[in-house]
TrEMBL record:
Organism of derivation: Janthinobacterium rivuli
Highest taxon of the lineage: Bacteria
UniProt protein name: EAL domain-containing protein
Span of domain EAL: 23-275
Length: 275
């Protein structure tokens, strides 16, 4: 902020300080990003630990702005959520991800499942299931090959989350609870949700061989998944040691740098077509 005048009166309001200006600039750029083709998707493989078999990919959005360079999602997703742009962006991501599944298929690569992240704001707009159903119909992707990832906090903070999730379930798509263990969902509530997958948050995997608490949490989530007949996938797996630990404790699926960083669609084709 700049101080103006002898009385120390600030010309800029607190929200107009450096950070505020930067935010506005980002927001302005963000609104144009889709029409300017600056958004693209990366895909991160999800694998079966003991066989290395590809079971799916997660679509992760990337923004490459000519001036700013590559802006991380952690910086622009919250902005997109605040400004409402997430509805357009989320729809674009879903459409592109579904189309990519069909392209891979035509190129001879069978990717069993596509996972796409949903934001809380996309639930506030009403008919999310209608939007998903339209995209599936347009692209021709079978509903059971799409898995929507929703964080625990989204579920707990959305008025009628159960209603929306039931609607999505009704059209046949899979549902995963993302970042599981970081929110506060009660087990009683979890039991009511028609979800098939729990994703163990990366923060519990990171120190798995050194932090006994993280180990205990990871094991508890794996057990919970087992007793509720849900599949459990560990995210952020970076080492062989972590993978071995997970396998030993009954977690069959993983995603993380140990297997692959998020990559372009073309790289998926080159790396996995022989598998
Ligand atoms: P997320 O859904 O939990 O996605 C996993 C994040 O962990 C990704 O970060 C991924 O690149 C990163 N990651 C994967 N494996 C490893 C690993 O082994 N080590 C480490 N350190 N990181 C790993 P990314 O792509 O930066 O995305 C961050 C978050 O942004 C995502 O977290 C998700 O919440 C959000 N996001 C990304 N794409 C979308 C999207 O299309 N829609 C919405 N609504 N949110 C998205
Ligand atoms: Ca996710
Ligand atoms: Ca996650
Ligand atoms: Ca996360």
């Amino acid at each position: 902020a700049k101080a103006r005048g002898r009385n120390g009166y600030r010309f800029y309001a607190p929200s107009m300080t450096g950070e505020g200006v930067e935010r506005l600039r980002l927001e302005t750029f963000l609104r144009r990003s889709l029409e300017k083709n600056e958004m693209f998707l990366n895909y991160q493989p999800q694998v079966e630990i003991d066989t290395g078999r590809l079971v799916g990919v997660e679509a992760l959005v990337r923004w490459n702005h000519p001036e700013l360079g590559l802006v991380p999602p952690a910086r622009f997703i919250p902005l997109a959520e605040d400004s409402g742009f997430i509805n357009q962006l989320g729809k674009w991501v879903l459409d592109e991800a579904c189309r990519q599944m069909m392209r891979w298929q035509a190129q001879g690569l069978h990717v069993p499942k596509m996972a796409v992240n949903l934001s809380v704001k996309q639930f506030e707009r009403g008919s999310i299931a209608g939007m998903v159903a339209d995209i599936l119909k347009e692209t021709g992707l079978e509903p059971q090959r799409l898995q929507l990832e929703v964080t625990e906090s989204v579920i707990m903070n959305t008025g009628d989350a159960l209603g929306f999730i039931n609607d999505l379930h009704a059209i046949g798509v899979g549902l995963a609870i993302d970042d599981f263990g970081t929110g506060y969902s009660s087990l009683a509530y979890l039991k009511q949700l028609p979800v098939q997958t729990l994703k163990i948050d990366r923060s519990f995997i990171k120190d798995i061989s050194t932090d006994v608490n993280d180990e205990a949490i990871a094991i508890a989530i794996i057990q919970l998944g087992k007793s509720m007949q849900l599949s459990v996938i560990a995210e952020g797996v970076e080492t062989e040691e972590q993978a071995a630990f997970l396998l030993r404790h009954g977690c069959k699926l993983a995603q993380g740098y140990f297997y692959s960083r998020p990559v372009l669609a073309q790289d998926m084709l080159e790396r996995w077509i022989d598998h």
